[in-house]
Specification:
This protein is mainly beta and 94 residues long. The chain has no helices and eight strands. A three-stranded antiparallel β-sheet has the order 1-7-4, with no helix packed on it. The protein has a three-stranded antiparallel β-sheet with strand order 5-3-8, with no helix packed on it. A two-stranded antiparallel sheet has the order 2-6.
Length: 94
């Protein structure tokens, strides 16, 4: 996960969660959950932060790639947003 090192209170935070297929064979599209362990909201778009979701389902589909496969050597990043109204502590879950 790529995120800012520090954020002021009540600011919008942009983060990117990356997955890379480091093998030399294609693999099924990986999926994960990202969870806010301290209650900060999570969203795929800034205007959805008011929904106060604390968990998002991430599906690492390659743009313009095969539908259900992450090809060998490919990195996929998913941009997510939070707002620093609570401590920014997150966990990536299977």
């Amino acid at each position: 996960m790529q995120a800012p090192a520090a954020v002021r209170v009540n600011n919008l935070v942009t983060m990117v969660v990356y997955v890379t297929n480091t093998s030399n064979v294609d693999m099924p599209v990986p999926t994960r959950f990202v969870a806010s362990t301290e209650g900060a909201p999570l969203a795929f778009r800034p205007d959805e932060l008011g929904l106060m979701q604390e968990e998002l389902f991430l599906e690492f589909v390659e743009r313009d790639g095969p539908r259900n496969v992450l090809r060998a050597g490919v990195t996929v990043g998913i941009r997510i947003y939070s707002q620093s109204i609570r401590p920014l502590e997150f966990q990536i879950l299977d």
